[in-house]
Amino acid sequence: MPRMVTVDEAKKIKQQPDKLTSVDEQVISVTLSSSGKHGYPETLRLRPLKVKDVKALVEDPINEEIPYVRRLVEVVQGTVLDEGVEVREMTMPDFRKVLLAHRVNSIGKMIELSFRCSCKNELQVVPFDLMNLDEKMIDDEYKEPVDVGGVQVRFPRVWGYLPEGKKSFDEVNDYDVLASVVIGKDVDDLLLSEAKGALEFIKRWEMSYGVQTDIEVPCKHCGKKVKIGVPFFLFLSLW
Ligand SMILES: [Zn+2]
């Protein structure tokens, strides 16, 4: 005979609807290149993207980079199944890896990249397989926070690259990024010597791990290899 559920159990059942309800619901598991060294897990679980998620990206034109990437962060946040993981608090390399995982799982691994070579003013389009991107894991030795001349620092976070009131990445300066790096101190109050040490820390580590961000493609006219940036931020809107 079925037993009545207790009030506590009933409450728990009510709290479940947003969680996974069936075993066949697809979960995307992403292993982050930072190996859990930044205070969030090494493996992130995501639900697949739905049309309602990417609408906000496609309908709104990308005329302002930073507001667009902020929306992108929110879209990705809406797919994170692990509690307490904030996408804006992740590092850029990890954010790029998550975008790659979504792209490959929801849209596909092929992307069309366009570029111009200096030899001819013509737009060339080449298909590229995103599975061919290299990935470097974080240095085993890395451990944060790091003490730099008495200032505690950590790897820059996504929000540091998206300062309020700025529209394009060209406007973002070192001090904006530094705000997400320095722990327990206002960047404005740092001595210049301390800021210098913290900036050197960023330069040393910023690109030290993660998925490859540039690729080289041969020009079909002169054969010269042209460097193209992988458009991570357009992965969910560029089909
Ligand atoms: Zn060329």
- Spans of at least 5 consecutive residues whose pLDDT stays below 50 are 13-24
Helix content: 25-40%
Overall pLDDT confidence: 90
Please state the structural category: alpha+beta
What's the N-to-C terminus distance? 54 Å
- Order of helix and strand elements from N to C terminus: HEEHHHEEEEEHHEEE
What strand order characterises the main sheet? 1-2
Give the total of beta strands.
10
Strand count, sense and closure of the main sheet?
A: 2 strands, antiparallel
Please give the structural blueprint.
Layout: H1 7-15, E1 28-31, E2 43-46, H2 51-58, H3 65-77, H4 92-107, E3 110-117, E4 120-129, E5 135-136, E6 146-148, E7 151-153, H5 174-178, H6 192-205, E8 210-211, E9 214-218, E10 225-229
Antiparallel strand pairs: 1-2, 3-4, 5-8, 6-7, 9-10
Helix pairs in contact: 2-3
What tags apply to this protein structure?
binds zinc ion, single chain, 2 domains, two-stranded antiparallel sheet, two-stranded antiparallel ribbon, globular, 239 residues, alpha+beta, 6 helices
Describe this structure in words.
With 239 residues, this protein is of the alpha+beta class. It folds into two domains: 26-135 and 210-234, no CATH class; 143-205, no CATH class. Helix content is 27%, strand content 19%. The protein has six helices and ten strands; from the N terminus they run αββαααβββββααβββ. The protein has helices at residues 7-15, 51-58, 65-77, 92-107, 174-178, 192-205, and strands at 28-31, 43-46, 110-117, 120-129, 135-136, 146-148, 151-153, 210-211, 214-218, 225-229. A two-stranded antiparallel sheet has the order 1-2. A two-stranded antiparallel sheet has the order 3-4. The protein has a two-stranded antiparallel sheet with strand order 5-8. Strand 3 and strand 4 form a beta hairpin. Helix 2 packs antiparallel against helix 3 (65-77). It is globular, with a radius of gyration of 21 Å. The protein starts with 6 loop residues before the first helix and ends in a 10-residue tail after the last strand. The relative contact order is 0.16. Mean pLDDT is 90; it is low at 13-24. The structure holds zinc ion. Zinc ion is lined by residues 117, 119-120, 219, 221-222, 224.
